[in-house]
Amino acid sequence: MTEPTNSMRTPLAKARGLGSAKSGVHHWWHQRLTAIAMVPLVLSALYLVLRIAGSDYEQAILLLQNPFNAAILLLLIITGFWHAMLGVQVVIEDYVGSDWGRITTIMMVKAVLILLATLSALSLFKIVSI
């Protein structure tokens, strides 16, 4: 249905019924929360990397086997990949034109990121269980 050119309706009235303006708020909040959560996790991981840098293999394994350090790295893996998934989805939604292409690309990227997150977590579990 098209609006007559001499319509007295306001832009807000014209936009009503064209979709929910609140649909992206949940996604937006998750991006912000994961970004905030990653600040201390990344700083802690950098500290671990600096501690591992000067050590030999056995010392590095012992450092990573510490439950606190392993938990930090696991949280970083989960939060980092979740944040990446949210961010890449926004980019795809903004720049991929067709609905079919957008949905397909989002599904493929999510599958790859979930696979990488799983492999990262399993690698950490393997190091912890040595």
Question: Can you describe what's shown?
Answer:
With 130 residues, the protein is an all-alpha fold. The protein has a single domain (25-128), classed as Up-down Bundle (3 helical TM bundles of succinate and fumarate reductases), CATH 1.20.1300. 78% of the residues lie in helices and 0% in strands. It is built from 5 helices and no strands. The longest helix has 30 residues, at 99-128. It is elongated, with a radius of gyration of 22 Å. The relative contact order is 0.10.
List the helices and strands and how they pair.
Elements: H1 11-15, H2 25-53, H3 57-65, H4 67-95, H5 99-128
Provide the descriptors you would attach to this structure in a database record.
130 residues; mainly alpha
Going by CATH, what is the homologous superfamily? Answer: Fumarate reductase/succinate dehydrogenase, transmembrane subunit
Shape: elongated
* Total number of strands: 0
CATH class: Mainly Alpha
CATH architecture: Up-down Bundle
Number of helices: 5
Largest sheet: none
C-alpha termini separation: 66 Å
Strand share of the residues?
under 5%
Helix-strand category: mainly alpha
Helix content: over 70%
Low-confidence stretches: none
Q: What's the structural domain tally?
A: 1
